[in-house]
Design brief:
Blueprint (H helix, E strand, L loop, with lengths): L2 H12 L7 H15 L7 H16 L1 H9 L4 H8 L10 H6 L11 H8 L3
Helix pairs in contact: 1-2, 1-3, 2-4
Length: 119
């Protein structure tokens, strides 16, 4: 199994257990960023799985933010790690603060999140 596939599988597995420590969740955010750098290389199946992972990030955003906030400031972590604005999963605090927008079901999760993240 290649490294990309391992990262995607690990991330999917990690999001099935959001009750872990905030440190572990920060690692998942970092892992998602590593996958983002390789997105152009993903095949159709990997892209579909990543879309599902992104939907899961959005569904769990409040829980993830609460856990992460117990151990770190998400805005501070973004600044420290120089997180790109396109890496919306690092902006859970801002996503939650935004009023919910009505979107079509077929719109990919990353497009929904991108609408709420300032650039």
């Amino acid at each position: 199994m290649d490294r990309r596939r391992e990262l995607i599988d690990y991330l999917a597995q990690g999001l099935q257990h959001p009750d872990v420590s905030g440190f572990e969740l920060l690692e998942l955010l970092d892992m998602r960023s590593r996958i983002a750098m390789q997105e152009p290389l993903l095949n159709w199946g990997e892209r579909a799985q990543l879309e599902e992972i992104d939907r899961r990030f959005l569904q769990l955003s409040k829980v993830l933010l609460a856990r992460i906030s117990q151990v770190a400031s998400l805005p501070e972590m973004r600044q420290r790690n120089r997180v790109l604005p396109s890496h919306w999963w690092w902006y859970l605090d801002e996503l939650i603060a935004q009023p919910r927008q009505t979107v079509q079901r077929e719109r990919p999760a990353r497009e929904v999140a991108a609408m709420a993240v300032p650039t």
